[in-house]
Task: structure prediction
Amino acid sequence: MSDDLSRRQLKTGETLYSQGDAGDCGYLIESGSLARYSGSGTSKQLHAIHYAGDFLGEMALLGQRIRTATAVAREDSQVLIVRRQDIDKRLSESDPLLREFLITILSDMRNMLISNWDVTKSSAEGLASAVRQLQDVESMMRGLEKSEFVLYYQPIVRLDNMKVAGVEALIRWNRPEYGFLPPAEFIPLAESSGAIVEIGRWVIEQACADMERLGINRMNEDAESKSPFVSVNLSGRQFSDPELAEKVGEAIQVHGLGPGQLKIEVTETELAQNIQAANELLLQFKLLGVTVALDDFGVGQSSLEYLHQFPADTLKLDRSFVSAIHQDHTALTIVSTVSRLAKELGMDTVAEGVESQELADTLQGLGIDYGQGYCFARPMPIEDLEVFLEEHGTI
Ligand code: C2E
Ligand code: CA
Ligand code: CA
Result:
């Protein structure tokens, strides 16, 4: 699309457009990132952060509109300028069916905006909740700068010898006045606002730094076992982070992690929505010696299909059916079948949510390689993990 479009280079801190400006074009970010704010001075509020591949200011393409926010470059960035005539030109050259479809949608959207652009229609409640969300995103980004996020680590244990084989990094937000927030309370908003890209990069760097601090390589005293590893969770939104593979490569190199010592966990659901981007990323990870785990396996709809489409190294069986195997014979059959299938595909298996020794024994009997759960240890800060590993022998 970029052949005859003009570009604009922005220096860090430079404004692309300001709230209240009349707009007649949209922008596609080619490199760098921009923050979108509303208000100014003390009432300034961050809406979202946009990265390469994101479109912004697009409402202007539906007709001359007043900008409702200000967009500022967070680093040296380059944007493609997209005008209404650029869209019209491409529409006229496109497949007739596609053209009619898009023209109809564009004109419906324009009519809808013109007739419904009535601020009084938005409920006070809806507005208050939107404002709260914006404030939360802003304090999340500020929290990242002020080191309010921490990683907790939960041991993953080899079921045949009960040694710690690796750990999973689980994020917490020590938010002032709220205390330690679990990921369920802020990751969804981080994902929908795009803040997860920045947070996710931090998680990878921090997990690798923590493993260096723990002396991950010195811990590998058991010659029979594989290298100890740290597992990090990735959101689907991060698949399209153009700098992700580079940041991962930097982190493992700077902190001295060897092949197989960093594992990336992706869930089946997010994979299903981004299978192409995920596969491309997987190839890059393979080159870096980073392994991949398919997380929460069994909660999605067509699980077995993804085993073939996405060659992961590890399969993590979801807690929901691991915990059911003593009550439900079908769950037991599923776990045992998946365990055999994973072996055939050359994957190792981790059972999540192992809450009793009895369950750990059953799982081992079914051929599951590793267990993770409260029966072994809860997620803990790095200082406690150091003590735990000293007391329980390691990887
Ligand atoms: P997950 O990846 O499935 O992580 C396992 C969750 O199960 C953790 O919850 C862990 O504390 C909990 N858990 C572990 N063992 C047991 C057990 O025996 N019983 C029970 N009932 N629960 C157990 P947590 O830490 O609240 O994390 C929740 C989810 O948040 C994670 O699920 C993961 O999807 C997401 N998450 C955590 N850290 C990150 C991160 O850095 N980035 C992203 N994108 N997502 C993250
Ligand atoms: Ca996980
Ligand atoms: Ca999981």
About this structure: The longest strand covers residues 164-175. The longest helix spans residues 124-145. The pocket of calcium ion (ligand 2) is lined by residues 168, 233, 265, 295 (CB under 6 Å).
